[in-house]
Fold each of these.
Amino acid sequence: MLEQQLAQYLNLRLSASGPVQVTGVRRIPGGASRETWAFDATWEEGGRTLCRGFILRRDPPASVVVTERDVEFQVMDAAGRAGIPVPRVLWLEKDGQHLERPFFVMERIDGCETSPQALLTDPAYIRVHDRIARRFVEVLAAIHALDWQALGLQEVLGPPPSPEECALREIQKWEQVLEREALGPELVLRAALRWLRRHLPPPAQRIVLVHSDYRVGNFLFDAEGEI
């Protein structure tokens, strides 16, 4: 079913001279805020046969972590234009007309993804440890250094909090998630949030863009350790 829907959608979006063939549709596990699917497409264009890999990020029927797909799409687009290594985002659909629920499509990038344990112990990765570690920090620093205002992200993300309010606003966000989604008392989480309120960090020195889930497992790297 999804394979046919994707083929019909790509027929609308690609400059194909004939029907688009979609194959290899597979669900990628993980990710709390979106369904992630990989697939391949083949089509004729300009007298040539083209084959490309794509990633579909589709809203799930329900999710504990609520994020807006258009925000994700536009932030990734801005980051890519600024030189951050992210996949190129292609199409954003804000309704369920084509695939039942809102979604966006981006290019698929080949690379390795592994667990922290395997990255540390697997002989295949040992020789690129230093390169991965350096690039891991360099990319994070580049994200923090982005001129998010010049990239137009204030219109996407909304007005930022003041330096004094940054930490408190994040705590309030997770308090709201807890109140909305908790299935039980969640005493430990509530105690942790109260502790955080009592021990707020000093005001931020400046307001920057942050990744929010920057870790092994959330980036790809090649055989030479390039992210």
Amino acid sequence: MHNHLRQIIEQTADIIVITDVHGIIEYVNPAFEKITGYSPDEILGKNPNFFSSGRQGEEFYAHMWSTLLAGKVYRNNLINKRKDGSLFHADITITPLVDNNADITHFFASVSDISEDIHDKVRLKQLIQHDSLTDLPNRSLFLDRLQQAISKAQHLHRLVAVLFLDLDRFKNINDSLGHTAGDQLLQQLSERFRKTIREGDTIARFGGDEFVILLDDFDSDNSLSLIAQKILNSLAIPFEISSHEIFITASIGISISPHDGEDPDTLLRNADIAMYRAKELGKNNFQYYSEAMTAHVFKHLSLENNLRHALERNEFMLHYQPQVDARSGKIFGVEALLRWQHPDLGLVMPNNFISLLEETGLIEPVGIWVLETACKQSRQWHQSGMGFVHMSVNLSSRQFNNNHFIASLENIIKETRINPQYLELELTESMLMRNTSSIITALKNLNNLGVRFAIDDFGTGYSSLNYLRRFPIDTIKIDRSFIRDITHDSDDLAICSAIIGMTQSLALNVIAEGVETHAQLDILKSKKCHYIQGNVFSPAVPAANMTQMLADQLLI
């Protein structure tokens, strides 16, 4: 070998191997030892098959030798084994060397270690086909697997099911604890789902809080129901996130091919429709798709379209529910509650459209309308000689987090000339749990205007005595879920007693919500909970009715 040629071969980063016509190694360059770990003394005089990985079968090598012995250059990728047993991907080119008689005398092999390239491609494919947060398959990979499963099932006359899962009230967790905590919850959820589903099933994350599961090996609807219930049951154990114990539920919609669709898009759409039906039926359940659900969805969309015009058409109205001092029987305040006077459906209650307001973003302009209307009504009652009536108004998370909210409220107070000390904004526990300086600043700025704050649905969220100490809270409202069974459930009675005692020790007002019966009222009065709101006195009524009640005053 000429010195210049040898110098090039010995300095190249690729492996160079020269064998005789029988494949016995006669020469290797320094790169061989660097990449494989074998020294020249260990391999000279041997056949290269001693570092074969076994990944290539007999047909692979038969084709290679037939090509080489025909005098042709052979190129391919293969996997070889290093001295330490590790594998590496190689791009190999073998050239037959011939003498003057055109007889093959040697083989010259150039081998490139392409392991890093292969790994990069694998990583790229992983990134392209998997969700970066949870490492679950993404929509693209799921659709590919679903199409394969449908094709296979059609050939074998079997069924394929899609389970569309959406977490219930996940937005509340993001709003209260922040997106970092939300991401941690999604990661823990994904790991729990992996352990819950069967081996061979596919679970993918479609983004946000949506997960989709592919099942292609089941024998009946009953077995599907068992799997769906198992998934729901897996969420019963709380998650530990940022020192908080988080409870979460999910709603699941199920579609089955070929009955509910014979292509991925149709199956997914129908499973999605069934999932929304599960949410409408109370969440934390699963529903099978039916054609009747599609008609229901169209009605839902129609309601959404009408809702977008309800504000400009003056279809919203406020009803007011009195808050009563049970000791005197006098009304000391009211809560403003939104209603929608639909032109065709009549009076629509908020549980049928509040979620739509939030989804469409209309909750903010409608929320401002509620505040302005409630403040105008409060001012009107005062001008009519009925004194100052405490006006409670619910705030949504989106309203509260809007940078322009404080300025908007300040303008409303100025324009309506309401005494802000008689305006109470109701917040949920989850809205305060971020505990950020911006929230504290916002509350203090509002408090400086004279506005008061109440915690609504107390005890149902992330209750913490710490925020009662840190934030300027004036009133605690005991959630109706603790009041409902207070006459016969000792746990609910104990919870109510504890909340009442705590608020009194902190010099806060406490209002019991959802009081329906005199038996409930008597128990609450015996526990010295004097402020009552509920149908035991009056349901929420239009402004005219409330005006008459304020004029009459006594409700006991």
Amino acid sequence: MKEIAEVKLGKKVEKAVITVPAYFNDNQRQATKDAGAIAGLNVLRIINEPTAAAIAYGLGAGKSNKERNVLIYDLGGGTFDVSLLNIQGGVFTVKATSGNTHLGGQDFDTSLLEHCKKDFQRKSKKDISNDPRALRRLRTACERAKRTLSSGAQATIEIDSLFDGEDFQMQITRARFEELNAKAFNGTLEPVAQVLKDANLQKSAVEEIVLVGGSTRIPRIQKLLSEFFDGKKLEKSINPDEAVAYGAAVQAGILSGKATSAETADLLLLDVCPLSLGVAME
């Protein structure tokens, strides 16, 4: 990634702000920081991905300075985070955060992959479970179908000579895909309810809901989240793929003294510890 950035910028990259899932523990954060050092980077700060996205949204949405509660719903390829922030002017205060470091788009791919494996075995009487190449080709096709189903009602999964000379073809509808992943989709609402509880806020107190991460393009995810908040419209004004990087870049600019615009001059980020410290009080 350092090399990609240097090619894009046309100059050497020595410092960086690196983002991590909000629910990463201290060991995971330190390992990420160590990886940056091994790559030759001076890691200025490790910040949470939904918090970075909130910075991008807060600076790019053209909002007024009025106080508002914003929920960041960040569902990516492998992790899921929810953060509830209070934003007023340039002050971003994280009220609560929750998530699952083992839930994301890859899990939805796997559900579809397992469905396809069973269909292939039923049709051909052959099991591809122990063939890495066949599984890799099928997973790639499943991921492509998943993306197609975000905009279309059905998709075709078609692979020539998938295993032992047998071709594979299957139609998958959006409804069937949603059925296969119903438990995972519904499970994303649990951290949403948790952050509301931790922040001691009612659903009606959340003014804006921001979607971040490629998996938020799935229509069923959007519908479930909107229904949870009693039909509230979801914010899609920022690019879900770029929001985290944009926020991290802003933070890097501030820490390195290169961000001098009026929008960033008073920016203050107040985050929370996402995991329990293990201390009980009576």
